[in-house]
């Protein structure tokens, strides 16, 4: 896909992967004075505040931004441009639920019900991006004050024998019943069911998993790109951001990275239309609040769930 | 002994932090190159032939 950009622009693209989103941002901050690259793609709304408070990016208003829905454009100064989004939700194994005569969960509260005791696996928010996103969903849903806070909710999940693992891969590919584990409920993405179809060893007629997408049960991660401050090739970086917001690149995103394009007029692949669900009204939190509170939420979560 | 270990640790940490900070752009990147920093999940290949 980027070959088209190279041909069109006469530029070469060199890709430098730097670990997960948190590690990417941290390394970019450490090397800000003499940056490792020209453009950064992959900072999401859970780390955007950290990137912006460290002046990681130069503002750039791509002409293509006009076609991006306002609710995805979080930075009014356009230091970053939204490129893709995905919803982190509870996924469940349809076959396991049917065989055990269990209903699909229909709310976050349902997960604390006795019928789901010992059936949910989540990721540690201190070590995992979807784990952090799901913690945010619970903060947004239950709040930090009042009779029943997100910490009360997590205490109930703990009492209902939730399993915590470090990363998405071990949760999904080791503990999830679909892959031989003992947990039929797992935190993953709303786009995981079409991925099950596409990567199935034998062709499937139906997705074997589904996602709980009811209002407020998912957290929306928005991924951004920005021109790095002190970049050696800022014009090239701008051109690459324009390309990331072009129809060819946006069309390619769903099946390459299992995320949704930010351009709503882009046609989604059929398997996405059929099996990927967009969360009805996903939980969101202001990125500034996430930046201020993230460590506190994780610390409090650790006290309640792991200590 | 503990102090010696502490000093060694400080030196290693300084080297790591300063080392990362001074690495800069990949040496082979020329003026006609755009260097894209991204996460490990980035999966848009440069060409269908598998790279550049």
How would you describe this protein?
The complex is a heterodimer of chains A (307) and B (52). With 307 residues, chain A is of the alpha+beta class. Helices cover 38% and strands 18% of the residues of chain A. Chain A is built from twelve helices and ten strands. In chain A, strands 2, 3, 4, 5, 6, 7, 8, 9 and 10 form a nine-stranded mixed beta sheet that branches. Chain A starts with a helix and ends with a helix. The model of chain A has no long low-confidence stretch (mean pLDDT 95). Chain B has one helix and one strand. Chain B has 52 residues and is of the alpha+beta class. The chains are: A alpha+beta (307), B alpha+beta (52). The interface between A and B is large, with 44 and 30 residues. Strand 1 of chain A pairs parallel with strand 1 of chain B.
Keywords:
A: 307 residues, alpha+beta, 10 strands, 18% strand, globular, B: 1 helix, 12% strand, elongated, disordered C terminus
Compact description:
The complex is a heterodimer of chains A (307) and B (52). With 307 residues, chain A is of the alpha+beta class.
| Mean model confidence by pLDDT of chain B | 59
Strand content of chain A is 15-25%
Number of E strands of chain B: 1
Tell me about the largest β-sheet of chain A. Answer: 9 strands, mixed
Oligomerization state: heterodimer
Q: How many helices of chain B?
A: 1
End-to-end Cα distance of chain B, whole Å, is: 51 Å
- What overall geometry of chain B do the principal axes of the alpha carbons give? elongated
Q: What share of residues of chain B is helical?
A: 40-55%
- Between the first and last Cα atoms of chain A, what is the distance in angstroms? 47 Å
Q: Quick check: average pLDDT of chain A?
A: 95
């Amino acid at each position: 896909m980027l070959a088209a950009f190279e041909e069109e622009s006469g530029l070469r693209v060199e890709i430098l992967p730097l670990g997960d989103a948190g590690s990417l941002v941290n390394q970019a901050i450490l090397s800000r004075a003499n940056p490792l690259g020209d453009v950064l793609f992959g900072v999401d709304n859970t780390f955007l505040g950290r990137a912006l408070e460290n002046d990681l990016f130069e503002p750039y208003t791509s002409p293509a931004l006009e076609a991006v829905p306002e609710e995805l454009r979080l930075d009014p100064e356009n230091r970053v441009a939204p490129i893709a989004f995905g919803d982190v939700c509870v996924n469940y194994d349809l076959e396991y639920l049917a065989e055990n005569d269990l209903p699909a969960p229909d709310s976050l509260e349902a997960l604390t019900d006795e019928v789901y005791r010992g059936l949910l696996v989540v990721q540690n928010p201190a070590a995992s991006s979807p784990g952090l996103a799901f913690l945010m969903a619970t903060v947004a849903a239950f709040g930090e004050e009042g009779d029943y806070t997100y910490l009360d909710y997590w205490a109930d999940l703990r009492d209902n024998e939730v399993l915590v693992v470090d990363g998405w891969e071990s949760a999904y590919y080791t503990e999830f019943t679909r892959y031989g584990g003992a947990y039929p409920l797992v935190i993953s993405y709303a786009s995981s069911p079409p991925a099950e179809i596409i990567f199935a060893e034998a062709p499937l007629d139906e997705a074997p998993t589904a996602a709980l997408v009811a209002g407020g049960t998912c957290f929306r991660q928005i991924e951004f790109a920005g021109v790095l401050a002190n970049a050696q090739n800022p014009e090239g970086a701008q051109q690459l951001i324009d390309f990331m917001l072009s129809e060819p690149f946006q069309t390619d995103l769903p099946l390459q990275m299992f995320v949704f394009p930010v351009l709503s007029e882009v046609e989604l692949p059929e398997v996405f239309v059929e099996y990927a669900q967009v969360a009805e009204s996903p939980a969101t939190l202001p990125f500034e609040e996430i930046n201020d509170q993230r460590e506190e939420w994780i610390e409090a979560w650790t006290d309640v769930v792991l200590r | 002994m503990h102090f010696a270990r502490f000093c060694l640790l400080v030196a290693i940490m300084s080297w790591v932090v300063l080392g990362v900070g001074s690495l800069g752009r990949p040496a082979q990147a020329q003026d006609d190159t755009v260097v894209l920093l991204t996460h490990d999940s980035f999966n848009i290949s440069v060409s269908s032939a598998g790279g550049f």
